[in-house]
Amino acid sequence: MTSRVVITAGASGIGLGLARRFAAQGDRVAICDSDAAAVADMAKALPDVIAEVADVTDETQMTAFLGRIEAVWGGVDVVCANAGTGGPAGRIEDLDYAAWQACIGVNLHGAFLTCRWAARLMRAQGAGSIIITSSTAGLFGYPLRSPYASAKWALNGLTKTLASELGPAGVRVNAICPGAVEGDRMDRVVAMEAAAGGRSEDTVRASYVTGVSMRTWVNVDDLADMALFLASPAASKVSGQIIAVDGHTDALVTS
Ligand code: NAD
User: Fold this and answer.
1) Which of 36, 81, 129, 183 could form a disulfide with 111 if both were Cys (CB 3.0 to 4.6 A apart)?
2) Is 148 a catalytic residue?
3) Which UniProt keywords are listed (predicted)?
């Protein structure tokens, strides 16, 4: 059965990978992203996907984007609240308040605006699957990354709470916790953490598998596999779960 799928931050990285995979299985897909150039590239590469510029922290932009989707589709089956930013790296005493707020804003406030819309439609439909992108940073303490870890732990709380609120209406809510994902973003994170901690990038990169029992990074398709499962009838009794796709992290080793 064809699903109607909305993905935030869908023009690159994990969101783009999710969009490609949902579209490839025949679903109708709409994405938003704050990067206008990336949205334009995506519109060319995947012309059947609705791609719009919207910042997940901007209520006016999100209301307009989601309202247009609602007008065209009349409902939604799957919503991936995927947008998140890594925020600053550093000891808390050195962190800037504006950078803290920006990190919490994209990860948590963006998910609020997205899930609020999804919940209203899905409750009325009596069905739907919300998939929130959390992180292994939401499962452990994460030295030098307190805003990001705090935001991701908050998303796990949001997931559990929305699953309880929406379960009686037949709506499922789950979170995926990616481990370190191969790609541009982790390249940037490794560089930032190396600078903040006075270590080489190779040392930081190696540290990302030290605490992972399978000694592996993950890739976008590993996450898409999980999202497609959570969106599917095969997961019809799966809700309220915080699911790591990370090769099994024992501990976030940061030194
Ligand atoms: P990314 O940095 O590659 O960014 C993906 C997209 O997000 C970009 O196109 C960017 O323009 C968009 N974006 C950023 N801020 C936005 C905003 N305010 N509104 C709309 N779009 C915005 O990120 P990614 O690696 O694809 O990460 C996606 C999600 O996965 C995030 O929630 C992230 O925290 C989480 N995650 C990523 C990793 C990883 O290793 N990459 C690991 C764990 C969790």
Assistant:
1) 81
2) yes
3) Oxidoreductase
